[in-house]
Amino acid sequence: MGDLDFLNFDTQSRVKVLFVDDEESILFALRRLCRNTGWDIYTAESGDEGLSIIDEYAIDLVVSDMRMPKMNGAEFLEQVVEKSPSTVRILLTGYSEVTATLAAIDKGKIFCHCTKPWDNDEFREILNQAIATR
Questions:
Q1: Strand order across the beta sheet in which 112-115 lies
Q2: pTM score
């Protein structure tokens, strides 16, 4: 038995969720929504930052805003599919541009599309369903 066996944290089985949005207040609200879940929560303010987190951690679920500078949610989720195909993907958007949403559904292979503002109870249930599909 090694000296570090007492550090037997089960970090591999903890659910890892990544929220990507360029608005800090939205990230704060999403983090607060998930505060009692026992999940490991990661946040990123850009698609590039989100991809770096995906490179470093085995993310189970990613929720991305659609409208972000440099890389929109559809482009980001398309890259997530390539980097981590088993990660469940949700698109979160405050606007209703059908073409962009359809592109995200097709290329990003999203689990579902949710709108801002969201109902906390409904959104929490969607997150639980998404994680259950994994």
A1: 40-44, 16-20, 61-65, 88-93, 112-115
A2: 0.85
